[in-house]
Amino acid sequence: MKKLLLLLALAGVPAASFAATPTPTSTDSAARYQAKVDSLQATLHYQTGRITLPESVGEITLPAGFRYLDAAQSTQVLTKFWGNPNGESLGMIFPDSKGPLDAGSWAFVVEYEKMGYVKDDDAQDIDYDDLLKDMQADTEEANQERADAGYEPVTLVGWAAKPYYDKSLNVLHWAKELKFGQATENTLNYNVRLLGRKGVLNLNAVGSVSQLAEVRQTIPAVITSISFSKGLQYADFNPELDEVAAYGIGGLVAGKVLAKVGFFALLLKFWKIGLALLAGAWTAIRRFFGAKGTEEPALAGGPTPDTDPEA
Fold first, then answer.
1. Signal sequence: where (predicted)?
2. Confidence bin at 13 (pLDDT 50/70/90)
């Protein structure tokens, strides 16, 4: 089971507390859980067809099989449903067969980083195997900061899909395989970067490594469905007027895009927290949803609101 899908982590219940719990025979908990999930997902209103992104950055012409959730509702999903500490985005792109609380769900979170024009002249010269070693070292170094904050360590296992830059489309995409703590299933982080005149459109999908083929097959259609607004496209760059980013393709892959807020923030941002019905976990489910819908979920793998990380 992938990290960040553990309901007991969301609820702050130690894993050991379930070790001695008899397996329940009643289906009542599962039915009540599903009813709550259905009621929450029914509050979401998706769009299809042609979507204008906030701030007139660009537009999406959604391909068949996908639907879009606007920025406000995406914030609700990211922070309230999935428990992320920062949920701001331009929106989310979901497969039309899965909602945010469905088993095996995943989505592209759409963001825009106004960092300037990213030069791509280093794309052909990057040794991505060497870059991976540097990223693994950075991830390991950041684990002390995670531990100090009460979170489990993260291991960058390797490339799930090696970085590839399409110069004709000015699109970069790659996927990382990560291991959170002692999780038995590794996490997939698929990254897509569309380069523009004044910044980069970021699409990030998080799921389990077993979903790599499912996510990867959608990349061509998703990439071609998104475009920058007129005047903001990569070819519109004016060297006499426009700012150039401080790093190139290698910096995007290495995560330098978030260097200003630190590598720890990069590890925390938008890690999906989904739901899984565990045996005997109805109490944990009630705690997650809150008796009156007021209790906030905790970030999986980290301290809960009533838990001292130093304990």
1. 1-19
2. very low
The Cα–Cα gap between 176 and 255 comes to 12
The yes-or-no verdict on residue 259 having pLDDT over 70 is no
Structure tokens at 262: 């630190």
Give the gyration radius of the chain's Cα atoms: 20
- Are 14 and 291 contacting, i.e. CB atoms less than 8 angstroms apart? no
Whether the CB-CB separation of 153 and 181 falls below 8 Å is answered with: yes
Q: Quick one: DSSP state of residue 23? A: P
Phi, psi dihedral angles at 217 (to 5 degrees): -70, -15
- H or E stretch covering 76: helix 71-76
Q: For residue 17, give the amino acid letter.
A: S
| Whether the predicted model's global pTM rises above the 0.90 cut | no
Report the distance separating Cα 50 and Cα 7, nearest Å: 36
What per-residue confidence (pLDDT) applies to 253?
Answer: 93
The model's pLDDT over 42-85, given as tens digits with 9 standing for 90+, comes to: 999 999 999 999 989 999 999 999 999 999 999 999 888 887 77
Distances (CA, A) of 144 to 47, 149, 211, 224, 264: 42, 9, 30, 40, 10
User: Around Cβ 246, how many Cβ atoms within 10 Å?
Assistant: 11
Residues 6+ apart with CB under 8 A from 142: 154, 263, 264, 267
Beta-ladder partners of 56:
none
Q: How far is CA 158 from CA 101, 166, 187, 188, 281, in A?
A: 28, 21, 11, 10, 33
Residue environment code for 159-193, b if the CB has 16+ CB neighbours within 10 A, otherwise e = bbbebebeeeebbbbbbbbbbbeebeebbbbbbbb
Average pLDDT of 184-205?
94
155: which DSSP letter? E
User: What whole-number distance in Å separates Cα of residue 155 and Cα of residue 19?
Assistant: 26
